[in-house]
Each structure stands twice: as C-alpha cells, then as structure tokens.
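Our collaborator T.R. sent over the components below with a one-line note: 'Predict the complex.' Nothing else. No constraints on interfaces, no templates requested, no preferences about which chain binds where. So this is a plain run: every listed entity goes in together, and whatever single assembly comes back becomes the starting point for the next discussion.
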Amino acid sequence: MNSQSQSQSQSQRRKNFKIEAFKHKVELDPKYAERTWKVLEHAIHEIYNNNASRLSFEELYRSAYNMVLHKYGDKLYSGLVATMTAHLNKIAKSVESAQGGLFLEKLNHKWADHNKALQMIRDILMYMDRSYVPTSHKTPVHELGLNLWRDHIIHSPNIQARLQDTLLDLVQRERTGDVINRGLMRNITKMLMDLGSSVYQDDFEKPFLDVSASFYSGESQQFIECCDCGSYLKKAERRLNEEMERVSHYLDAKTEVKITSAVEREMIANHMQRLVHMDNSGLVNMLIDDKYDDLSRMYSLFKRVPEGLSTIRDVMTSYLRERGRVLVTDTERLKDPVEFVQCLLNEKDKHDKIISTAFNNDKTFQNALNSSFEYFINLNNRSPEFISLYLDDKLRKGLKGASEEEVEVVLDKVMMLFRYLQEKDVFEKYYKQHLAKRLLSGKTVSDDAERSMIVKLKTECGYQFTSKLEGMFTDMKTSEDTMLDFYAKQSAELGDGPTLAVQILTTGSWPTQLTAACNLPPEILTVCEKFRTYYLGTHSGRRLTWQTNMGTADIKATFGKGHKHELNVSTYQMCVLMLFNSADGLTYREIEQATEIPALDLKRCLQSLACVKGKNVLRKEPMSKDISEEDVFYFNDKFTSKFVKVKIGTVVAQKESEPEKQETRQRVEEDRKPQIEAAIVRIMKSRRVLDHNSIVAEVTKQLQSRFLPNPVVIKKRIESLIEREFLERDKADRKLYRYLA
Amino acid sequence: MASRDRVRFNVGGQLFETTSTTLANAGRESMLGALLDESWNPGQPEYFIDRNPACFSTLLDLLRTGALHIPSNVPEKLLYREALYYGLLDHVRGAKWGPFDGNTLRLADSVPGRAPGDGTAIRGAPDGGCCVAHGSVVHVYNWMLEERRPISLDYQQVNDVGYIDANSIVITARERLGKGDGGMAVFSAATGELRHRFRVEHGRQPKSFTAGALSLAGLDDHRIFSSCKGRLNEYGIGVWDHNTGQQVDFFYEHPGCSLGDADKLQWLPSKNCLMVATLFPRTDNCFIGLLDLRDKSIPWCWSDAGITMNLEDKRVLHAIAMEDGHSICVINQYDDLGFIDLRAGNTNSAGTGVRWSSRSKLMNQKVPYEESCYPKLATHNGQLFSCMNDSISVFSGSEHVLTSTLRRSYGGSICDFSIGGDRLFALHNEENVFDVWDSPPCPII
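Returned assembly:
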C-alpha cells in the first residue's frame, strides 16, 4: 500500500512539473492533523476503557511527535483537555451513583484507574510535555490530569460535601471505638494530598480540625465533671496518642502538629487551672502522695501547651513555700534541732526525687525548689544554728560506721541547706563553737569527715571563711606534739602524780569564752604549774590561761563494798568530786565557795552527778530533778554500775538558751560591723562618689555570700565612717557621699 | 532468562538487538523507557521505530557505555534532534563534557556574534547554555549553542545578567530619565518572554530605578540582590525573593560607602553577609564592604581612600570573595593578584591590608595594552581564574599557583568570562566572539 501511493504521487508531480517558489515551511495536509488527532483520541478512549493492549505505543508516540513538530501542539493539547474532561465527567456520574459505603470504594477504584490512564497518556504525549508545554506555558500532562480530577470529581457539587462528610464520619466512628478501613482512608487522603496540599487542607484538614476541636471540647467537659485529675490526664494522654497514631496511619504527617495542638488546647490548656487545683487529686495531692506517674504525665502533657509548665511550677512553688513555712515555724519541731534539719533534708530529698523522676530533671523546676527552700529556711533565724547542730550530731556519733561515700552524701546534703542560708556568718559562729567542743572532747567520729566538711565550706565560701577553723586543727596537732615533748623531758620530776593533757589553743582561732577560772584541786594545780613553766620556757613571750570549763578528767573512785570505778568527768565535775575526798556531805554553797565554778555551770555539773540514773555518784537532798541553792550533796556510797568505766556526761545544752542566743546574735552583729565598713570603704575607694542607695545595693551584693546586711545597719556604718572622716557628704547633694583619701 | 532480557528493534529498517538492562539506563521518563513499560503490551518479538538508524545506533551506544561517540557521518544537530525524540537529550549533554577542572579545559566551540557594540557580560547557565549581554540586548544560547530569542528590557542598556535557573534569566538595566523604564526583570530563557518585573518601593511608593550589579544567594535561599540607583538619591542594595517576586529589603547607602554604583555583589553564606565592591574606574576610591542585612550594619569594610594616587599606582580593578570566606581576592592593572584578609577585623585604615603577589614580573608586562579590558576574577571548586587581555589564567591550590593559561588567537582581549554548567565562557572584545571551554569526559582508562 505504502509504496503504491508513493509512486502515484510521484507520477502526478511529474505531470504538473513546475518550479515552485521557495517556501519556508512545508505545509502539511490539513486533514493530516485531524486524522492524527483522531488516532490519539481513540487511543485515549481505549486507555480509559482498559483496552490498551491493542494500541501501538510507537505509533501513538510518533503521531503526537508529528503533531507537535508540525505546530499542531495547540490542537493536541486542547483535544487532550476536552477528551479527558469528558471521561472524568462520566467517572463523576458513576461515583455519584455509588450507594452508601461503596462511595469511597468506588472513588478509590476510579482514582487508581485514572492514575494508570494518566500515566499512559503521558507516555504517549511525552514529546509534547517536553517541547510544547514549557514553551507555551501550559500545564504538564500529569499535573493537568490531577487538576481536571480535582475540578471535575473532587469539586463536583454532588461529591465534594459527601466526600468530606464520609471522611469525617469515619474518623468520628473510629474515635468512638469502631474499626474502620484504614487502608481505604489512607488512599483517599493520599489522593487529596496528591491533588495539592491546598486541596487536602481545604477539603479535609480544616473541617477535620474544626470537628475534632468541638468533639474534644465536649469530651473534655464531660471528663472534667466526673474524673479526678489523674484519670483525666490518663484519658487526655490516650486521646493524644490516638490522634498521633491516626496521623501516622492515614493522614499527612504535617497534620500531626495541628491536630495535637487542637487536642492540647481543648483538653489541657482550657482546663489547666481546674486540673491543677482539683480537690483531693490536684497537683498538691500528687506531690504529697509521691504520685510519680501522674506527675510525670502532667508534666509531659502540660509541657505541650503554652504556660503549662509555669502553671505547674507556680502551684508547686507556693505549696512548697507554705509547707516549708509551717515546718520551720512549728514550735514542736523546734525542740529538736537534729529532727528539724532531718525534716528539711527529707523534704528536699522527696522533691528532688519528684523532679528527677517525674519532671525530667527540669532546670526551672530545680530552681523553683531551690528558691522555695531559700525562702522558708531563712524565715527562721535559728536555721544556721540548727544546721550546725545537725552536723555536730552527725560528726559526733551519727556517722559512726558509715562508709566514706555515705559520709560525703550526708555532708553534701547539709551543704545544700547551707547554700540556702542568708546568714552564713551566723552558721560559721555556731559551727566554730560546735567544732571546738568536738575537738576538745575528742568526740569527733572521723578526722577525715571533719576535714572534708571544712573543704566543702572552703570551696563554697572561700579561704577566709575557714582559716580559723583550720587553725583549730593545727592547734590540736601542735598540742599533741607539745605533750609528748613535755613528758619526755619532765617525766622524772612528775613522779606518779596525775597525768595532764593540755591542749594549747591560739587565742582568736577558737570561740572566745569567758575565762571564769575555777579553783583546781591542789594535786592538779602542781602539775599545771610545772607545765606552765615548761611551756613558757620553750616559747617566750606567750601567755597561758586555763580554760577549765572545757577540760575533762578521768578519776578513780572507790565506792562501798570496794566497788572500784573509773569515772570520766568534766574538769568542773572533777573539782567537785575531789572535794568529797575530805568530806562526806557538802551544801551547794560550800561547793560553790570551794570551787568558784560559775553558778550556771555548777548547777549543770551537779545535776549530772546527782540526778542522772545510773550515774549518780552523788546523792542529793532533797531528791528532785532541779538543783537549788539550799541542796546538800553526799558521796553516794551505794553507787553501782555494771561498767568499770563510767562516763558522766554534762547535761549539755543542746540548743542555746534564750540569753545565749541573744549573746551569740549580738556577737554576730558586732562582727558584721567591720565587714560592712570594709565593704563600704572598698566600694568608695574605687567609685569616689556614690549615692546612698547605690552603696547599699553594692554592699549587699558584696556581702550576700556571707549574710544579708540590714540597710539600717549599713546606714549606721556609713554615719560612723563619716564621723571618722573616711567619707563626707557632698556639699550640694546631701544624698551623695565622697571618699576622703 | 537471557533471551527474555533481550529486546529487538527495527529502526528505520535496520535491526538492533539490545537488553532491557541497557534500555533501563534511558530511564522511565524517556520514550524507550515508556515503550518497555508493562502498561504497554511488553514482550513483543520486535519493536518498530520509524527513525534514523545511525542516530539510534549512536544513542544506543551511549546507553550501553555511558560515553558519547558521534560518527563523522552524523551531524551533531541531527543527533540532538533524535535525542530529543527519544527523550535522551540530558543523557547526551551529560556525556558531552566532563566535570569542570580549570587545568583540563579544551576549546569546545567559538560562537561569533553580530552585536554592534562592546560586550558587557557573559554568563554560563546551570545546564551549560549561556547568555551574552551586548549594549541593550541579551543573546541567549542553549547548551547546544543554538541561539534562542534575544531578550531586552525596554531596549535599555543592560548592566548585568544572571541565571536564577537554567530557564530563568534576570537582567538589570539602566533607567531612562523620566521614562520609568529599565530596572530589573526575569525572562524565560527558552522563549525570551518577560516573566516578572521587580519593583522597588521607598516609603511604600513604587519608584523606578537603575539596577546595576546582581547577585543570587543561591541554593535554598531565594534572595536576589542588586545595586540600585533611584532618582531621589535612593541609592543602595535592593533585595527581592525570586520565588514571590516581591521586594523583601532595602539597604540604604551609608555615607562614605558607595553601594548603588557597585561593580560586584557576592553573597557569602558562611558569613551571612553580602560583599559589595565599588571599584576603579567607576569611582576614584575603591570600596569593598560586607553588609549584614539583618541589622543593616557593615561589619567589615576596606577602602583605598586617602592614599595619594597617580596612574601608575596599583589600583584594585576587580574583587571576589574566596570560597572559604576567609579572604577577598583582588586584581590590579598589572595583573597582580592580591588578598585582603577578612578575619583581621575592620581594616578601615586607608588602602592597607592588601597582600599583593608579585606575578606582574613573571608576566613581564609592565604597561598594559592600549586596547585592553579591565581584568576580572572568578572562582570555582578551589580554583581561581583571572582574565587579562586575551588570556585567562588558572590558579590552583591553597597558594594559588599559576597552572594553566587559556588563549585564543583571535577576538582580541577578553572583556568578561563566566563559569556555569561545568563550562567556561569567555567573551572577546572584538568581533563579539565568545569561546566555550569545557573538560573532556573521563578517559576510558
């Protein structure tokens, strides 16, 4: 056929031979385009009708190529649009007619068909896509196919609303527990996404979010009326997880943020205050009952919404402050300092654990906890004393047998409380007193623990804070060496008199004590004098004063029936007991006269000798708990004990009594004065001129690591410095101070 | 199994046998890929294709080996046309030249122009095409070096051109007094159509302007920068988003640093700054500065103002920021390269800070030619390129050693050159000829 027609046209041309004018373009048979298009149109129909197997790809491709090559691209393109539109309208009818639940199935099925057809049509028209489409600003075939599907199927008036309702209804059914065909849902949402993110958003996502928000608004209202806080949070968490799971199964990943934020808003943000403050199950109850799971859930849920964590934090802070305030002002608790501090430590441990297990170790929560402790610990001005007493207790006996690590843990915890203290200098005062007592009585559990504590204080507060404390340790060591030397040199002279152990304390390093020397028994006095001669002989220019109130003595006593006991007593007690070597009964006044022990100490010492069961080496008349000045004391001949060594402790005042407290306070205040003055001078020296408020602020800043200076005191110190001509007031502006070099 | 893989073609009467594995190299988005796709009745004993067998043979060989060998009897343009039919044009382009290396460049082509005036600029497209600005018209060539429709912006003097992508060319043009024309616009490289005209607003008022040097931020950053001169002293750097076409920022000129007249803009992603260079002879005093657009500051700048200059003194004629972002390379009229350290803080002190190399002695050219063009600089993959007179020098390595020189016998001195799409394009001053240099594909062994 082909060769025949060719020869025909050749013969025709030969007949009408003429020279034609040169044409730029060879005109094609105008019917050729129409014919070629018919072939292609037919192919498109066949593709949509699943009859593609009879088509020749090569022929169709070449046809489309030829149409484009011969400038029939417009015809090809508009023909494609028209043909495809016609098919899609047919598809729309068929989808519309689908009954009830088959609607989505049908749509999905047709969508798959359309995609397959589109792919094949694009194959045929590939050349058009590559050359005609870009130069004529048309939409590429694939995109065109999607756009037409969107306009004629998805946005068809009979489909659009029905599709949306069907999808939303399925989601709603799944939320209420039904099982739905997730694969079908995924295909349909994927179709919407393929049609462009705006189609997905407008036709599904927006209404989905609206419906979800109102659903959760209603549900949360219902939950909050009938659930306690813990189970409400559980429900909210479950709903949140469900929505995330839904997104992962059949929605666009970008929807996750939107739907979760809707759930968060409706279920959490809108009910936050009510949840936190819920009666009997709110945040405070969870804290009290250590409900780690509930707290952790609340944390992770609230973290998702704005202001969520700060809501938790605020409630926790005010609860902690109130609880702490009650704790530190509870007069019952104040009776036992060790118990008091232990209570604080327990409180700290409890909430540390809550923050670490339930609140993800959140820094802001830790800060809130710290600031709460700082707030209430300083509400009680005895806190520094009590903390030192707690340490004293631990270092005396509490840590006996504890491993090094355990000791460190306890000390670190106490240091934590120490950090909260504003009046660190007050703590230092007490710590020094308590340390001195421990060292002198040899009661300290472990030297290592003591030194470790000093190191901690040093790292916390610097060298000057601990220099005196360290001096005390040095004194102890030197004393030991001195005593060895004394006995080595003087043993011949001393004979078998009482053994003396002297601790030489540097004045200033140790807490200053009123040196109310008592009258020592003559036997002791002789040895003491010998030591004094020895010591002053080896160290010139020193002065020795006996601190009899701080010593101890071991004495041997024989009671009735020849019972022998070794008594471990204080120096004061020894002085008293020695009197009974020469007398059986003595009145209080006689004892006081003979020993000259200060009344308060004497009463305490007599009390411990006569009134403690099992240790009553003296007998008192009348028998009573308290010592009065009319009492008479007798050597208790009937004293027995199953121990050979009997330790007679002094009834030590654990806490300071009110007057002592006043005294300590006064001493602290006195010590602060030079520190405040030094700070003022330092500041003024560098600033030269400064107004009152700035000085107060700067001084407070400089000193706050040790204590919080009172502005009134600062003002007084400034006035004193003006009097002493370190500073002067500015002539013009009375608020300004000048530094006088 | 082996026979199943085999595919027979009858192309224009000539038989070919190949395998579907070989044809898979064509990709699904090609005619051959679609032909063998399972949606089209595959497994036929023989496929007929009504096309030129010689070209098919060449293209099949390309699919088999990845290398392009055009027999002498096949005209190149014919092969391109056939490749377009099969959808294999990108394969051909990819096999025509290899990865760019300044030291292996060969002259691929010389394309004569017909423009009346001096060339202004030449720019390489990302796909290996190029465009040449001559006076008020930009001639556009695809990678096959076929000329497309020339483009112009109201037939105004073109100041700079650039490719946003292979199909979008942005040009900047001068504004004619009182006409409100010129400015800056994007054109389609394929059709030459005007796509979008960029506007400048000052105080919410749209104003006409003269756009000068161009720079694109590149990659995911859609910003495009141009130096701008408005009528009412609205001098500075305009910033647009080429995705939206909207103006996003304007950096008004600070006193003492000339921005609206800049010769060269370059975005430095590592510093988040725009380098602006305004150089001799446009100004008497060279200014190079880095602009921080976020806070409208100039964190670094350099100037040679204040040094008494006579004509023999070394003057900075072109500048380019090095790819490492640590220094700016400059060039003078003696073809000396110099470096200014960007890390040395603000070296505002007049004219100091340039470390000149002494290459001028090496080149032994004390006085430049009478008919010379100003030298230009470019960088690519760690190599530095400079043009001076009729040759381009290639410097390699961290010490910038001179490693190659590219020179053509005719065309006169080079007025501009550009690297793009793994090709180097050099525009000559006389006869408007431009040369295309590229690296050969990797050798067989």
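Summary for T.R.: Chain B has a mean pLDDT of 86.
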